[in-house]
From TrEMBL:
CDD domains: CHD (cd07302). One of its GO terms (biological process) is receptor guanylyl cyclase signaling pathway. SMART domains: CYCc. This is guanylate cyclase. Its EC number is 4.6.1.2. It comes from Ardeotis kori. It holds the Pfam family Guanylate_cyc.
Length: 231
């Protein structure tokens, strides 16, 4: 009976651990209790988007198994790295990777700093991931960051997902899509949020045309003055 109880505890722990990787702990706890999870408004969060440069052409020259293996290696690498920061991985869609800070647990004004440090780490880390059919080739990341308000909540019943909504999400996605290989493209809002500590090397990119937003003044995040990212 004691052994069966221990096995049951172990299985329950594994199930809970898996659930916590798919949903925020606070949300998972409410769902386990069959409670309704209310959508929540966040005044300030920082959102990161990235994708792989030339992924479509890379995937076209790989076998399906190689594509899955490559993305799995990439995400295992990224997932292990982001554990060092106060961030929440929202989702992955194909080669796109979305991370936020400041939710579901609020962290005051730390969210921009946490995402900035993490993004520098990931841009360095992606160079370790090989392209299966080109062992000497390395993947390149294109990243974008924006800071602002958003709404977050659980969507769906069969396979519930913790989703983010609002213009901040769209703008962060635009920062990524207008970025360049191995570059971190940040909005003015993120730039001003990072000025507080004067810990970052940031370069003005200038005004660019952003779809649905018009002209926006944006910047490149180059590095952190206090430390270098070690691979």
């Amino acid at each position: 009976l004691k052994e069966k109880t221990e096995d049951l505890k172990r299985e329950r722990w594994l199930a809970e651990d898996l659930l916590h990787q798919m949903l925020p702990k606070t949300v998972a706890k409410q769902l386990r209790k069959c409670q309704k999870v209310e959508a929540e408004n966040y005044d300030q969060v920082t959102i990161f988007f990235s994708d792989i440069v030339g992924f479509t052409s890379i995937a076209a020259s790989c076998t399906p198994l190689q594509v899955v293996e490559m993305l799995n290696n990439l995400y295992v690498c990224f997932d292990s790295r982001i554990e060092s920061y106060d961030v929440y991985k929202v989702e992955t869609i194909g080669d796109a990777y979305m991370v936020a800070s400041g939710l579901p647990e609020r962290n005051g004004t730390k969210h921009a700093d946490e995402i900035a440090k993490m993004s520098l780490d990931l841009v360095a880390a992606v160079r370790q991931v090989v392209i299966p059919h080109t062992p000497t080739g390395r993947l390149q990341l294109r990243a974008g960051i924006h800071t602002g308000p958003c709404v977050a909540g659980v969507v769906g019943y069969k396979m519930p997902r913790y989703c983010l909504f609002g213009d901040t999400v769209n703008t962060a996605s635009c920062m990524e899509s207008t970025s360049l290989p191995q570059k971190i493209h940040i909005s003015s809002a993120t730039y001003h949020a990072l000025l507080t500590d004067d810990a970052y090397e940031i370069e003005l990119r200038g005004e660019i045309e952003v779809k649905g937003k018009g002209k926006m003044k944006t910047y490149w995040l180059l590095g952190n003055k206090n430390y270098s990212i070690q691979n």
